[in-house]
Amino acid sequence: MSNFLASAIPAETIMSDRLRIRMVDGDGMAPDLCGLRDYVMILPVDRYHCDGVYLVDRGFGGTLYRADRSDRRETPIRMRLDNPCYHRGADHGYSYFTLEKFNEMVLGFVVANIKVTNEPMLREAMGA
Fold this sequence. Notes:
Layout: H1 11-14, E1 20-23, E2 39-44, E3 52-57, E4 62-69, E5 77-80, E6 95-97, H2 99-105, E7 106-114, H3 119-126
Antiparallel strand pairs: 1-2, 2-7, 3-4, 3-7, 4-5, 5-6
């Protein structure tokens, strides 16, 4: 959530042992995030906090999903991939969960997207 009145976070304070950088894998978050090219900064969490992108383990390892509140009383959390190719079926790609089930699966919350704009220069800077 943006707060335009808050002061900017100094770059040197962003590096923290609490935050993890993870490469986006797959096409689930396309077109905003490119698999095997872009990265996300993740804050490890163990529960739903607010609408946003979460790293969730549904039994196949961590995958990024957009999660938000639904109007369903029994299953108040819904999530899906951003890629429109996966928005099929009656629920348009949404899966619904109880808060307890979601909290069992959640691994982290995405606090920043890192878009690679020049991969060759990034590789050169890293010595790769």
